[in-house]
Specification:
Layout lengths: L2 H6 L7 H17 L4 H16 L11 H43 L2 H42 L10 H10 L1 H24 L6 H32 L2
Helix pairs in contact: 2-8, 3-4, 3-8, 4-5, 5-6, 5-7, 7-8
């Protein structure tokens, strides 16, 4: 994968500043109206689709309706994959508070201490498993995007778990590079925002635009991964 190209190619589009600015504006609106953020994820899908199809036009125009729906489908898919992690943390949290309250209601300090300790242990185990599952979900996410595009935006395709996990498993190295590149870009944006913290609005604008930039670059990298995967599989 060409990580450098993914993070710089947006400048090849003559309207890149306008398109990035629209994305930043959507991010701002999304702070108050969260579903608007779905459009950003839909835009990433279209970037990935163009790279996988070998299209030359660097950046798509904003199609709010289509991109909202595609972003919504991906969020639904990610939510379903994240359900086990959500259930785990709820169980851990419930066990901790339930045992703590039960111990306090027993009137025995010794029993209360034991039950609180057991509840805390259950919570720690649940949190550790939650963290592990969230990491696994992060690694599966690029596979979700590729599966979605390969199946023409069919929501049901996201729940063919074997296929999605297979894509992620066969591209584990590329997924790791995508994750590390996004992490590095986030650190860079935070550094720039900190250096400009003496201004009033610029750090905020940098953060909004930077997030959209990372989503576009990540979409490009996922597209590269999808193209490579299709070539290896003869698709």
């Amino acid at each position: 994968m060409d990580i450098g190209h993914a993070y710089t190619y947006i400048k090849d589009d003559p309207d890149w500043m306008k398109k990035l600015g629209i994305g930043a504006g959507l991010m701002l609106v999304g702070i108050f109206l969260f579903p608007v953020i779905f459009i950003i994820y839909g835009y990433q899908v279209e970037v990935t689709r163009r790279v996988m199809n070998g299209e030359k036009n660097p950046l798509p125009d904003w199609d709010f309706g289509t991109m909202f729906m595609e972003g919504l489908y991906l969020i639904i898919g990610r939510f379903v994959y994240g359900l086990p992690a959500i259930l785990l943390i709820c169980i851990g949290f419930g066990a901790f508070w339930g045992l703590s309250i039960g111990g306090a209601a027993s009137g025995s300090e010794d029993l209360a201490a034991v039950l609180s300790g057991v509840g805390f242990l259950v919570y720690c185990i649940a949190f550790a498993l939650f963290f592990l599952l969230m990491v696994m979900i992060a690694f599966v996410t690029p596979g979700l995007n590729i599966q979605f595009i390969r199946n023409n935006g069919e929501l049901g395709s996201l729940f063919r778990f074997g296929e999605v996990i297979g894509i992620a498993r066969d591209n584990i190295g590329n997924v790791l590079w995508i994750f590390l590149a996004a992490l590095g870009a986030n650190i860079l944006i935070q550094l720039v925002s900190t250096l400009l913290s003496w201004t009033i609005c610029i750090p905020f604008i940098v953060s909004l635009g930077g997030y959209v930039w990372i989503q576009i670059a990540t979409g490009n990298l996922i597209g590269q991964m999808g193209s490579s995967y299709a070539a290896r599989k003869g698709m």
